[in-house]
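Customer escalation, tier 2.

The customer says the design service returned an amino acid string that "doesn't look like it belongs to this structure." They asked us to rerun it and document both sides in this ticket. The original structure tokens are below, unchanged.
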């Protein structure tokens, strides 16, 4: 069992304990919140809420740490961030200006042009890619259908087929616009 910080009996003792926890755990929480798309201020809010929860559980003796305070505070902060994120998603209202519909005027990739570049990989590759991407067959079924010795061989062959297509596109310096009619 990990050792907990003692908050002491005086306000000065508590302040020292809180400062120690802040220095010890906040950078990790701030990094996590930032990685999840949050701001520094959101990280501070989340961490302060986590500190309050930790303090209350420590004072009420309802906590038994199995790791250190830093890990515990990060866990609480992750939970609070997830809860806040879900709440924000549920409250977001979409209006027509936020909706991104595909309009008939939007250019769409040309099936003919796509097929041309896929065909450059060869008939066998076309069949493998069709089975995998269009028919959504599992790799073990593709292994049986095409007579490969194992799942690994089928996976490698599918990869090689995709590389042939990628190489053709790269050689010709094609961009998305080249596939649009």
């Amino acid at each position: 069992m990990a050792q907990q910080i003692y908050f002491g009996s005086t306000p000065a003792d508590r302040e020292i304990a809180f400062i120690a926890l802040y220095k010890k755990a906040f950078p990790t929480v701030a990094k996590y919140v930032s990685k999840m798309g949050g701001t520094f201020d959101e990280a501070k809010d989340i961490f302060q809420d986590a500190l309050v929860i930790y303090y209350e559980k420590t004072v009420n003796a309802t906590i038994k740490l199995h790791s250190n305070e830093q890990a515990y505070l990060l866990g609480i902060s992750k939970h609070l961030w997830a809860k806040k994120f879900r709440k924000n998603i549920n409250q977001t209202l979409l209006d027509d200006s936020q909706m991104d519909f595909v309009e008939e005027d939007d250019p769409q990739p040309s099936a003919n042009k796509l097929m041309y570049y896929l065909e450059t990989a060869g008939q066998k590759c076309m069949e493998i890619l069709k089975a995998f991407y269009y028919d959504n067959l599992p790799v073990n079924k593709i292994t049986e259908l095409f007579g490969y010795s194992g799942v690994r061989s089928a996976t490698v062959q599918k990869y090689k087929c995709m590389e042939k297509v990628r190489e053709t596109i790269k050689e010709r310096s094609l961009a998305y616009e080249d596939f649009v009619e």
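Tier 2 assessment: The sequence is consistent with the input. Helices lie at 11-35, 40-59, 69-91, 111-119, 123-134, 139-146, 151-171. The radius of gyration is 28 Å. Sent an explanation to the customer and offered a walkthrough call.
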